Amino acid sequence: MNNETTSGFDNEHAKLVKLFNYYRDAKNENLTKAKELFKDFSGYLQRHMKWEETVLIPFLKQDKSTSYDNSIDIIRTEHIKILAYLKDLHEKIDKGLAVEKEEERLIRNLLKHEEFEDEILHPAIIKLIKKEVKEDIFKSMDNL
After folding, report:
1. b/e for 10-37, b at 16 or more Cβ within 10 A?
2. Stated pTM of the model
3. Per-residue pLDDT for 46 more than 80?
4. Is 143 exposed, middle or buried (0-12, 13-18, 19+ CB in 10 A)?
5. Could you give the CA distance from residue 27 to residue 23 in angstroms, rounded to a whole number?
6. What phi and psi, each to the nearest 5 degrees, are found at residue 24?
7. Which of 41, 62, 77, 100 has its CA 20 to 30 A from that of 110?
8. How many CA atoms lie within 13 A of 134 on its CB side?
9. What is the chain's Cα-based Rg?
10. Do 102 and 85 touch, CB atoms closer than 8 A?
């Protein structure tokens, strides 16, 4: 497995964790700042999922030797669920309501999703990636 490529996926997930932790750290001290930090996290998470849907999944579908349809369906279903949890959390944050249960639900689902990606999606893509294409795949995130 190509460590450079793997670290690209790891970097994406690490950035999401960092953004969420910034929000959580600010939550008890400055609600206005916490709301902005949550918007940053939410926006990046949505962009990340759009990148998976528009770049990674089509790239995976190019592999005619293996069918990833079931895995792709799982990823897309999880994306829908995560977006719904994200919307619910965002609405409650905007209203100043307690959100600990919603945060935990979102994090639990994100961790499950990340584990699935790390076990199925990323290794499959890494197998298919040609070294010269790797940079373009990760740069495509900037264009969304």
Report:
1. eebbeebeebbebbbebbeeeeeebbeb
2. 0.82
3. yes
4. exposed
5. 6
6. -60, -40
7. 62
8. 16
9. 16
10. yes
